[in-house]
C-alpha cells in the first residue's frame, strides 16, 4: 500500500502537470486569479486519479514481487510449502482494497467533482466582467471582437478603452473612449453588465460604398453581453451524473445530455469495470513474475511479459467499448478486459504451481 501510494503520486503528478499547463494558459489568459486556477486543478484531480489507479496497482505489485524474488523471500516461502494460490492471497486482498477505492472514485467523487467543475466553468462564462478586466492586453472574447484597456484606476475607472466589433463584415464598428465604467445591469440577471463609455468616438464602415461614419459622444452605453452571443444551456456529460440516475432515469439522462443509449450503457458499466481492472492488473503483475522462479539475473523478462500482458488487456478494454456503443445489448463486453486479465493471472498461477522437470544432464556427464 505504501508503494501504491508512491506510484499513484508519481503518475498523478505526471497527468496533473499536463492538465495544469493547459488550464493555466486558459484561465490566466482570461484574467482569472491564481485561486481560481488552483480550484480548477483540484477539481480535475479525482478524474486523473481514476485514470492512474490500475497502473499504480500494477506497478506496486511488480515492484514488491521483484524485491521478494531478488531477496530470495519467494523461494523461502515456496520451499516451506506455500502454493502460488496461497502466495497470491495478499495480492488479491490488495487488489480488492484498491478496487473499493476505485469504486468510491467512479461512483461518487468523480461525478461530484466533474459536476462542480462544469458549474464553475459556467459561472466564469457568465461572469463577463472578469473576462474583460485585464489591463494592457488585447483580448478576444469572441471571434471578430477585440477589446483593450490601457489601465484600471483604483476607483474602477477604465482608461483608454478600445472596442472593435467585426462580426458583421458589411458594417464593422470601432469604439474608442477616454474613460469607461462597467455598470451592473439590475434587470439583466447575475453576471450581466453594461459598458458606459465617456468622451469617445464611434466609427462604422459601410462595405457597400466604403464610407466611414463617425460619431462623437459624451457618453455611450454598450451591452457587453453582445460580445459573447446568446447564452446556451449548460453542457451536461453522462459522467457528471450519479450511477443511480444512469440506471433509473435512462430517457431523462439521454434527453439531458444528448448521449446515445450506447454511451449511457458504457458509462454506467464502466464504473463497475474499472475496479475489476485494478484487481486484474495486480494479479497479472504478481503471477507473471511468479512464473520465473529464482534467478541471479533477475526477473526482467517476466517484468516485460507482465507489461505486455497488461497492454493486451488494456487493448481489449479499448476495443470492447465501441461495439457496445453501437449495440447496447452487448454490454457484457464491457467486462471482457478485467475478466481476461483475471483469467490470464489465474492461468499463470496454475503454470507456476506445476512441478518443473529437472533439466536433462549432458550426455558426457551421464556417461561418466
The overall pLDDT average reads: 84
Regions with little confidence, pLDDT below 50 for 5+ residues: none
Principal-axes geometry comes out as elongated
Elements, N to C (H/E): HHHHHHEEEEEHHHHHH
Q: Please provide the count of β strands.
A: 5
What does this structure look like?
The protein is of the alpha+beta class and 368 residues long. It has two domains: 2-126 and 236-353, no CATH class; 142-227, no CATH class. The protein has helices at 2-29, 34-70, 73-79, 84-87, 89-126, 128-132, 243-248, 250-257, 261-290, 300-326, 336-353, 363-367, and strands spanning 145-152, 158-165, 173-184, 193-206, 211-223. The protein has a five-stranded antiparallel beta sheet. Helix 1 packs antiparallel against helix 2 (34-70). The longest helix has 38 residues, at 89-126. The radius of gyration is 31 Å and the shape is elongated. The chain starts with a helix and ends with a helix. 28% of the residues are buried.
Topology (SSEs and partners):
Layout: H1 2-29, H2 34-70, H3 73-79, H4 84-87, H5 89-126, H6 128-132, E1 145-152, E2 158-165, E3 173-184, E4 193-206, E5 211-223, H7 243-248, H8 250-257, H9 261-290, H10 300-326, H11 336-353, H12 363-367
Antiparallel strand pairs: 1-2, 2-3, 3-4, 4-5
Short description:
The chain has 368 residues and is α+β, with helices and mostly antiparallel strands.
Amino acid at each position: 500500500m505504501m508503494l501504491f501510494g508512491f506510484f499513484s503520486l508519481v503518475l498523478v503528478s505526471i497527468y496533473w502537470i499536463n492538465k495544469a499547463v493547459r488550464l493555466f494558459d486558459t484561465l490566466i489568459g482570461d484574467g482569472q486569479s491564481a485561486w481560481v486556477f488552483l480550484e480548477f486543478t483540484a477539481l480535475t484531480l479525482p478524474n486523473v486519479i481514476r485514470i492512474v489507479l490500475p497502473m499504480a496497482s500494477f506497478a506496486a505489485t511488480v515492484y514488491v514481487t521483484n524485491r521478494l524474488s531478488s531477496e530470495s523471500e519467494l523461494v523461502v516461502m515456496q520451499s516451506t510449502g506455500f502454493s502460488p494460490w496461497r502466495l497470491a492471497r495478499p495480492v488479491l486482498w490488495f487488489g480488492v482494497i484498491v478496487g473499493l477505492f476505485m469504486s468510491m472514485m467512479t461512483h461518487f467523487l468523480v461525478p461530484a467533482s466533474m459536476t462542480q467543475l462544469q458549474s464553475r466553468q459556467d459561472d466564469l462564462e457568465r461572469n463577463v466582467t472578469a473576462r474583460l478586466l485585464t489591463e494592457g492586453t488585447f483580448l478576444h472574447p469572441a471571434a471578430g471582437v477585440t477589446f483593450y484597456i490601457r489601465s484600471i484606476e483604483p476607483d474602477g475607472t477604465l482608461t483608454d478603452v478600445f472596442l472593435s466589433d467585426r462580426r458583421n463584415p458589411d458594417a464593422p464598428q470601432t469604439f474608442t473612449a477616454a474613460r469607461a465604467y462597467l455598470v451592473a445591469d439590475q434587470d439583466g440577471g447575475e453576471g450581466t453588465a453594461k459598458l458606459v463609455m465617456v468622451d469617445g468616438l464611434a466609427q462604422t464602415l459601410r462595405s457597400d460604398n466604403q464610407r466611414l461614419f463617425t460619431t462623437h459622444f459624451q457618453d455611450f452605453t454598450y451591452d457587453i453581453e453582445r460580445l459573447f452571443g446568446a447564452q446556451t444551456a449548460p453542457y451536461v456529460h453522462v459522467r457528471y451524473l450519479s450511477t443511480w440516475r444512469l440506471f433509473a432515469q435512462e430517457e431523462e439522462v439521454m434527453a439531458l445530455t444528448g448521449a446515445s443509449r450506447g454511451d449511457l450503457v458504457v458509462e454506467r458499466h464502466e464504473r463497475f469495470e474499472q475496479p475489476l481492472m485494478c484487481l486484474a492488473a495486480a494479479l497479472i503483475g504478481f503471477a507473471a513474475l511468479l512464473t520465473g522462479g529464482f534467478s541471479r539475473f533477475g526477473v526482467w523478462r517476466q517484468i516485460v511479459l507482465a507489461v505486455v500482458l497488461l497492454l493486451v488487456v488494456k487493448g481489449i478494454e479499448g476495443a470492447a467499448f465501441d461495439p457496445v456503443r453501437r449495440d447496447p445489448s452487448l454490454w457484457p463486453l464491457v467486462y471482457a478486459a478485467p475478466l481476461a486479465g483475471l483469467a490470464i493471472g489465474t492461468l499463470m498461477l496454475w503454470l507456476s504451481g506445476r512441478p518443473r522437470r529437472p533439466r536433462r544432464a549432458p550426455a558426457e556427464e551421464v556417461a561418466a
